[in-house]
Amino acid sequence: MVRFLDRANLELADYFTDCMADPPATLGRMMAELGVRAHVSEDVLMPLGRFRLTASRVGQGVYIWRLEDGSGRGEAALGTVLGANALGLPMMIIDTAGEILFGNEAFRRLTGGQARREAEVFLTPPTENGQLHSIASNGGTIDCVVARVPGLWGRQEVYFIPVPAKGSRWADPLGWDAVEDLPVALLKVGATGEIRASNREARALLPIARGQTMRLSDLIEGLGRPINDWLAETIRSGRPSGTEFLRGRALGQDRFVQVSLNPCGAAEESELIAVLTDATELKSLEAQFVQSQKMQAIGQLAGGVAHDFNNLLTAISGHCDLLLLRHDQSDQDYADLIQIHQNANRAAGLVGQLLAFSRKQNLMPAVIDLRDTLSDLTHLLNRLVGERVALTLSHDPALRHIRADKRQLEQVMMNLVVNARDAMPQGGEITIETGNLSLDAPIERDRARVPPGDYVVVRVHDNGSGIQPDRLPKIFEPFFTTKRPGEGTGLGLSTVYGIIKQTGGFIFVDSELGKGTTFTLYLPGTDQPLATALESPHPVEPDPDRVFEGIVLLVEDEAPVWAFASRALRLHGFSVLEAESAETALGMLSDPGVVVDIIVTDVIMPGKDGPTWVREALQSRPDTKVVFVSGYAEEAFSDDKAMIPNSVFLPKPFSLKQLTGTVSRQLQSATDPGKRADGAQAAPLPCPDGAPSPEPG
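and the corresponding structure tokens:
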């Protein structure tokens, strides 16, 4: 309902004179219909668009009239049009193309009412909000501060605040009361920063009361220099200042305002008009964008560091394997070598956390039943939480299957349970609940959008101390921890986040101080049957004492990895050709006399990467088998790149047995995909997107 306040004792048609073409005809037509019907409506065209005017007969000679648009948003905008003529300041409404849809009486007096486009009004385009501009008026030109207010459907309300000439005062001819109801925040500020006047919008934006004596520097900060210096500089220049984004001092750290200064008033008592705009949402989006860029940079750094560390760990673990071949358990150095190997594997686990955070780890997804996975994990989880913490599991009996890497999912659950335990130093209860959820509409939360579909929901709840609200948005960031120094690395939850996102799921957190925390996981459900042989994901390793035959082309740019791999393959009977780059390898294969049974190549190398040069080589040698090795293979095996035929992938760091076993199986599959040369069944080939994890040699 539009309420016409300040318009009493008028005819009905007079209420619509400023916003409707020929109101008497429209209203007369509707009144005639009300004589035979209790309710009528008609669409009317107004400057802001098409509205619907409805009338209902509620008694003898009593009617209710309603003017509204279909979206329910037109009342405020329509009120602007209807009250515009009562405003002493000129204003106009323009559309997205710059066409003038409406101008109030003051605007028509200022411009003569002949302008049809925005460009015909301004002599100094382009026009910026809060800046001083020259306006083409009846008497020539006049300087005005331009204030823009967004309207419906991309339209804008443009207000003109005339700036008095030198020697005059702000009170002449308009007076400050003319801007009191203006929907733009305005302040009148003295040269030394005292606030001399404010309108209603400014008082709503800043904590200032009408008539209260305050200084601008008491309200805003963040310029990088004294506010008074900025004011004095603007007055000396006699020109509008540039726009500044400042922080409200008395409003907390999350409120920002955009401020423009325009000098006005007499030379002996100069004043400034400050135009303010709430920029909190803009600065919040800017901060989120900067944070996303920072997180992306950290992710790239983590992935690169993990890749280089995997090369080093491959060399350390591999040469340790070579030494173990020459030492048995009775040797005094055997225990030291085992310690080196075990610590290398522990280091590989830490590198795996970095890869999980950067979402560049190599997953081995399979269809699993989450109930079985958690049941197998319960014994370990009970040992982790200790005697003072009770662990309770509750499952939906009809729980859907999910497709995920079982080992990585176990790591997720262990991290969440350990965090819950640490939040309850005096003991408590941890509850793990699972259930099905079918979404017909998307869920939008924490800047994430969960699309419709079938999900398995996992909730991990504790009744511990909870997380402070200001820390909740940061808990998934790397190296951020709520624990005391030395008690946490800050990688646990970032690793959890990376694994869940790489699995295609979502994770959210709810927490209340003193009552506990709940982590909620949304994992995509599937109707596929359970994977077979899930408990034995590792291929059967060949006999380490067996001598193999075959010619291997080894392409590796990292010298320590190349030295280990070359020795390991030769020790098991392979003939090895070596190349340190893709270009060298292609040069060797260009000779028809060079025979190669299998190619072992790194994925990421200077010059041409592994998949690129292998595709070129397979054009003339299509039956050659390929083994790709890499610290991570996201770049090479992304969805937009075709898979290389006859190829498997072996992630770094790999052991001696894993390297020789993978090469031997590839060569056996070249002879007979189902049979080995000695008649036994061939071991299953590793999946291209995964491989066994490192294990002691």
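(Above: one complete record from the training split.) DSSP finds 14 helices and 28 strands in the chain.
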